[in-house]
Amino acid sequence: MSVMEMLRGGTSSTTTGAGGDRQALQRAVLAGAGAAAASACACVLPALLVWVAASQSTVDWTTALGVGASLWLLGTGAHLTIGAAHVTMVPLAFLAAAVVGATWAAVRAARAAAQDRTPVHLADLVHRPLALVLASWTGGYAACAAIWSVVALAAGPSPAVPSLVVPVLVVPAVSAGAALGWLAGGRPELLGSRVRRPGWLPDAARRALRPGLEGATALLAAGVVACVVMVVFRFDRVSHLQSELAPGIIGGAVLTLAQVLALPNLALWAVSFAAGTGFSAVQGASASWTGSRTSLLPMVPVFGALPDPGAFPGFPSARRAGAVGRGRTHRLAVAARGRTVVDDADQADGDGHRGRRGCELPRAARCHRGVVARGGAAVGHRGSGRCDDPGPARGVRRGCRTRAGLGPLEAAALTTR
Predict the structure, then answer these.
(1) Do the beta carbons of residue 69 and residue 148 sit within 8 Å?
(2) Cα separation of 302 and 310, whole Å?
(3) pLDDT tens digits, residue range 15-32?
(4) Buried b (16+ CB within 10 A) or exposed e, 117-137
(5) pTM of this prediction?
(6) How do the domains of the chain map onto residue ranges?
(7) What residues contact 261, with CB distance under 8 A and at least 6 apart?
(8) CA-CA distance, 70 to 171, in Å (whole number)?
(9) Which of 15, 167, 373, 374 is the most buried (most CB within 10 A)?
(10) CA distance 294 to 215
(11) Residue 254: which H helix or E strand, with range?
């Protein structure tokens, strides 16, 4: 190849590269909008199918479309207002699936930009083309989510406007951040020096992150098992409520799937009950070690598995045991993940006791914060009316926070030789 051909080829590639960058950003915007649309179809299509299958339906298809859009917004973090009632129970399983799906879509949209041979960092933070593609993808997702929000406000159960920040902005931003972390895991040079782990972060905290999350996941798994056992024991009552609703084949399948998606939320209730704080299904209906109180419940079949109202038998013995064992669920989950981290601390620090304590404290704190974060994402405590106050009972939350703050110190004492 001659020198003139090389220069001609370089000029042509530069011009094409500028146009290619613009096209890549446009494709990223469309990919983000497509990801939001595909996620919304998981709720909109079943709502339309139920409307078609319901022969006695008296509403228009636009209302069914608005209901589907509202359910999608609820599943991704928004709160709904139905008459005088406020629905704030966000199904954690659907929220997790939406974030994982959006992250996968963002990774696909940004994979080409992440494969550039020479990274060019923007403000010494992130590879510039990668940052632009992810920002464009986030904008496309947010724009499509905003359109679905308008549909819900116009034709469905009205979502609370302040809570729309979560499905419109938080979910795409978190998904884009997760996609960036995934891509940077394969190519660390995509991140600049200002994004690297700060020097003030202790190694003990870094080593304790994964065990703490695993401890919180173990608590959630134990809660899922407890919920499944309760549903099996009270299956006759749950199935009776399901039949009373007469949802039909398609409606029954949709209703069952919706309850399965809320299973992690119910698992958090079980964990809260085991820890001694109890839980509140709706305003006025709660269960703790003292007993169960009932109130007007929505027609959700799985609520048939809740304990019968009244005082629980053997409460004095349970109270004496609670003086010793309350909160042990949290502490045992921390200790179950302890040996690996403690051994790492012993090897990393000549003074084994100091290294062990340095790991136990952040590990226990992260286990507690993982459960609290899941609970905060799953429930809300504002408003009035039915379904506005699910989760731990209000009267014991302050004591629970104090008790949880002492949990890391207890875990450190238990694991110190």
Answers:
(1) yes
(2) 19
(3) 334 455 788 899 999 999
(4) eebebeeeebbbbbbbbbbbb
(5) 0.70
(6) 15-195, 207-414
(7) 75, 91, 93, 94
(8) 16
(9) 167
(10) 32
(11) helix 248-261
